[in-house]
Amino acid sequence: MAKINPHFIYNTLYALICVAEKKHETEIAQKIKGVANILCLSLYSKPESSHTVREEIAAINQYLDILKYKYGEGIQAEWILPPGMEEESINVLLLYPLVENAVFHGLSKVKDKHLVIKFEEDHEKKCISVSDNGVGMSKKEIYGIYNRFEKWLDKIEEEELEAEMEHIHMGLFNLRLRLYFLYGEQAYFTICSKRGEGTKVTVGVRKNYKNSYNIKKV
Questions:
Q1: I need a labelling partner for 122 at 20 to 30 A (CA). Which of 2, 21, 167, 193 fits?
Q2: How far is CA 196 from the centre of its chain?
Q3: pTM, whole model, 2 decimals?
């Protein structure tokens, strides 16, 4: 099956930026730059790559700004993090699948869209949660996601995995798989939700994992 080279897309976006700037379409140029930046982070970063929390926040805010421009409605995002956390490191685009999942699965049918993205740290672990005020999920749906995660992790070396990965919540599965390969059993992933009351997804790494990319200073 033929595929478009992603580098071609990236270069084309920057060509469009130049055209927009020449025509003084500043807002359009800025939005395309946002798309190009996210694509660049995705293309040129390895699973273990890291950047500062400040850079991660900027990338996610760009993504939310693009959605606002596309759909004509904003998503209010509240960031909560301890002092000094912005200069610590985080795996590149770790938050992206969490935010994307919240937007398209949780907030798609909600008028006043609200996200809370919270960083927490104690002597045992460091974690990040993304909460939304969306439609929520039942316990049965949550258990179904957990069961698929475990099933997929058991099949990571089997050919039928690719076909099963076509189901919903692909972003969450990719994130769970990434955490599994980077941190093994030291990583954890939890979903708390109730129908009509929103969803909270938390990912974290226990600090006794020596090679944690999420804990070092940059």
A1: 193
A2: 23
A3: 0.80
